[in-house]
Amino acid sequence: MQFSITTITAALATFHIANASWKITAFSNGACTLNAEDINSFSRELSSPESVPDCFTFGQDMPGTSCTEAYPATSTTGPCNSGPLNPKSILAEGNCVFYAEANCGGSEAGVTLPGTPTCVDNGADIMSYKCVIQLSAQQFKMTFKNMLRNSPLAGYGKAIREAPREVIFNPHLLLSSLVYAFGGFPVIWDQGASSVIPSLPGFQNHFKIISGSNADEIRVFVSIVYVGFGVGSALTFFINDRIGRLWSYRLYTLIYCIGTLMAIFSPNLNVLYAARVIQGLGLGPLTVTCPMSIVEIAPAEIRGLLAAWFTLLMGLGLFTAVFCTLGVYLHVPVGNLQFQIVWLTPMILMGLCMIATFFIQESPRWLFMAQRRQEAIDTLVKIRGLPLDNVHVEHEVRDIEDDINRTAEAVGNSSLWTIAKETFTIASNLRRVQQSLVCYALAQLSGANLITSYFVPILAIVGVGGDTAHSMFLSGMYGVSKFFFILIATFCFIDALGRRKSLFVGAGLQTVTHIYLAVYVRTSQKGPVSEAASNAAIAALFIHAFGYGVGLFILPYVFGSELWPNRIRSFGSALSQAFHWLFIYAMQYSMPSILSSFHQWGAFIFFGAWCAVAIVYTYLMIPEISGLSVEEIEDLFRGPWFNAHRRTKQMVVQGVIENGKEDFGNDVDDKMKDYETNEKDVSRVA
What we know:
Blueprint: E1 14-17, E2 20-28, E3 31-34, H1 36-45, H2 67-70, E4 88-92, E5 95-99, H3 131-138, H4 144-149, H5 152-162, H6 165-168, H7 171-181, H8 185-196, H9 201-207, H10 215-223, H11 225-264, H12 269-297, H13 303-331, H14 336-356, H15 364-369, H16 373-384, H17 391-411, H18 416-425, H19 427-445, H20 448-453, H21 455-462, H22 468-497, H23 499-526, H24 531-550, H25 569-597, H26 601-621, H27 630-636, H28 644-658, H29 664-679
Antiparallel strand pairs: 1-2, 2-3, 3-5, 4-5
Helix pairs in contact: 3-29, 7-12, 7-13, 8-13, 8-14, 9-14, 10-25, 11-12, 11-14, 11-25, 12-13, 13-14, 13-22, 18-19, 19-25, 19-26, 22-23, 22-24, 23-24, 23-26, 28-29
Keywords: Membrane, Signal, Transmembrane, Transmembrane helix
Domain Major facilitator superfamily (MFS) profile: 176-626
Signal peptide: 1-20
């Protein structure tokens, strides 16, 4: 609902309803906005349930109900006059928004607000209300109930209810998305399995490994797969658009299966290491191809939810791999079959997925890119379950073709060398490269993935591992907790705080837990420690996982695909992904050296220091770019690096002021809604 600016004649400082005091916190859409905390308190303070306005309960019954109907206008008196205000309302981000019709005679009749003009005279002083634009994004406080209502899951539920049933429950769409999502399962299965497979007696006997808890002995086995990840993900730049999403999926799955078979029948460590690289050449590209394919086939209403399936199956792969290894350790006789079962399980699953690809749909977007328009339209009709003449299908066809044309126009006939040159020689593009690579690096320097990959040796260092079965069990529970922490953070916690605040909280928790672990390990090296301190060390590892889930885990995905302009988007994404995996390799390989060089306890200080650096870096250099135009994003990357985080808010205010008084209310509402929404949004795919 929108109001004309000329109907607004009063801005209220304080008014009283049923003995409840109300404080104005924002000026939005030409209306005085009450913050949600006061509204919730007001609902509790009313003595009679019959008099509680529905719109005050965060607007859950707002459609068809106004505050005027639910609460008598004659009971409301404002400071600008001695008579009733005749309140009316709309819902703005959980707030009841009031305005008065012709009750305020002018500025002289108003009540002074600190740092703001007095009662507004027919909107004449609206342009002076700069401070309230910032307040609306900063001072709105969500209750837990309201947080859940505004969570992504609630949004997906609403989208599912409102979208055509044929679109949401389309078997072609759901099966295709599920098969693509399973591409993430072996990726993290490998990380989970590689952390505990060296503890299997069969693996140790066959490959002459003395101990799975010795980080130096397993460093190459754990890390070398990421060389293949990096090279493979870079090669997707040349392959995916040439052969399509389905054939790319089949190719990468086949490469992974070949590498796995080599690992299963490896006669020695050298062949095993070569097999690990080949496995990575298949797994790395799947992390690029599968999320891309899901996004390209999914309808807008549930695109984020379907894309989250990939993350979900990655998380499932982590702890199921560990518990599979634990089951093998407990129930399979010592021999090669122990480690072969662990590698064979995901390979069989991916083999079935490769067969299933012959029964699912290709990306309509890629078919349009390949100049196979009729096939693309037929595929789109099939995965939407709607006829060609349906307005949803027609609109989507138009959007896809327009986007492809814009991208083609931007790239033109440019060679790879030209695009690479522009990426590294144009200052704003170079800043994008720096921002992307540093974010990926800081996430790994926090030590979270290193703890996952070297969890058994870490338990030995902390001195709480126990026997092999107990260490494997703790490793599996760590994977379970990490999985649920990331889900909770992604769908609830981050939306309550916003991305930047979540980063601060998460990195802060990681810093504190690293410091505790450092002190604990140093103390244990000097002598015995109490059982309570040992239990606290285990708890610190799990709290660290939560901190990573709400903090630095999301740092590389703050920008998403919007970071790169169309002309260099494919190259920039491939570059950042290749760096991501190669940097993981470097960190995984270096972990034993870090532990020994810093006498073990110092390694936690090292990681904690990088978490502190990440907090400072986030505060200074991480702007919010979602919802901004290409030109506005370009301006962000041209300004000084040390105050990038401030320029997004300045753009919001500047954009509103420049649009003039007539559209002031609408622009404030739209821009601040975008700003708050984007501040709490996060890429769901890791």
